[in-house]
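User: For my dataset I need records formatted as: sequence, then structure tokens, nothing else. Please produce one.
Assistant:
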Amino acid sequence: MLALVGTQVWVHDQDEALEFYTGKLGLELRSDATLPQMGFRWLTVGVPGQDVEIVLMAVPGPPVLDEPTATEIRTLVAKGFAQTMFLATEDCQRTYEELRARGVEFTEPPTSRPYGIDASFRDPSGNSFRLTQRTETP
């Protein structure tokens, strides 16, 4: 049996991302370790009460990635095309209002869809999120 334990999102600024994910989304800090010998910071957050962690990974430059590749990733993230994270809620409208009050800027308000109600927002780096309230079961 497999279990999902984590996922990674590219971020432009780890400190800004940490503030957004903990201060605005309400996630908790799980790990924050700097490995100076590698020029690397391992930064993870997660939903309180859940085991899955989100790694907030800075886009590395050389020698890990050549600069054209790093630039391409940064550009795709900023446009919201690197990945989409899906967050479930029991009340999309209420969660939308709570997150807006904390400063989250939505790109789409709660909208009825065939599968439920959802809204869209992006993090400071541009990563896309769908906030979803399912109204039918698979």
